[in-house]
Amino acid sequence: MQSKFPNRWLPLILLLPTIAVCAVFLYYPVAQSFEWSLYRAAFMGLKRIYVGFQNYVRLFTSSDYHKSLVVSLIFAAGVVVIGLSISLAIALLANRKIRGARIYRLLLIWPYALSPAVAGTIWLFLFNPTSGVLTYFTDRFFGFRLDWLTNANLALLGVIVAAVWKNLGYNIVFFLAGLQNVPGEILEAARIDGAGPWKCFWKVTFPLLSPTTFFLFIMNLIYAFFGAFGLIDVMTKGGPVNATNILIYNLYRDAFQHNKWGMASAQSVILFVLVVVLTLIQFRTTGRRVHYGA
Predict the structure, then answer these.
(1) Bridge-partner residues for 50, per DSSP?
(2) Residue 127 parent element (H or E)
(3) Across the chain, what does the average pLDDT equal?
(4) Closest by alpha carbon to 31, among 39, 21, 23?
């Protein structure tokens, strides 16, 4: 029996607070970004001059912006691929029935509770070229020291490692939930048919985890493009020589350090479109291989 509201306006009234909050803090800023991307700020940002699509043309012809785009794509690929692979491996281990499993799972999840600033500070100390733990380890066992965050070739790797670690708990929680929902009868039937642990995982467990994996892929992609600002700001500030200057940090520099609000707004629009396009591509390709239900 289908229930009905006594008043057809009641659902809209109940949704009104949510619609109002979204309109003020989401829809209006998005519309304003599109509008400001057509202007250039002048006189310390106090005056706007209409320039049409000139901001977009300048960005697409800027070698620095091209480099920032490449760095962002490499960073996103590292965060998504490395992060999901390690998280799934740890989740498989944490899903085993051992004594103290709940404590281990709790310890694996806690890094996600840290703020990006705190996580960045922790890794800043770990990568310290003189007293950092990782520097001591390489010096003690391999006889050399690495300038992790001042070397252009290593800095990007360093922030990828920090970003993966920061988001590890989030991924593990969802993978654990997915693993615990895999029907035991299907795994038992596969073992009876002679499938080993490796074949059981790839032919049974991993396909059943496809909805979780697909969801985490999208969330990690969004995190890589939008959520890693705090880590970058604390650890490298986009350096050295723009080696870690991802798009969101380049946007911040133009907006808050150089008062280029028009350029920053154009960058926000491009970043928004880029993430939407990547997400749609993912839906068109990997999304077709997602199986819901056993």
Answers:
(1) 39
(2) none
(3) 86
(4) 23
The residue segments making up the domain with residue 225 are 59-289
- Residue 163 included in any domain: yes
Cut 0.85: pTM above it: yes
Q: How many CB atoms lie within 10 A of CB 50?
A: 9
CA distance 220 to 208: 20
Alpha helices in 95-151 (DSSP H): 101-109, 116-126, 133-142
For 179, counting Cβ atoms within 10 Å of its Cβ (0-12 exposed, 13-18 middle, 19+ buried), the class is middle
| C-beta separation of 52 from 38 below 8 A | yes
Q: Distance between CA 175 and CA 220 in Å, rounded?
A: 13
Q: Please check whether residue 285 lies inside any domain of the structure.
A: yes
**71: nearest Cα among 264, 248, 220:** 248
The 10s digit of each residue's pLDDT in 275-284 is 888 888 877 7
Distance CA 260, CA 258 (A): 5
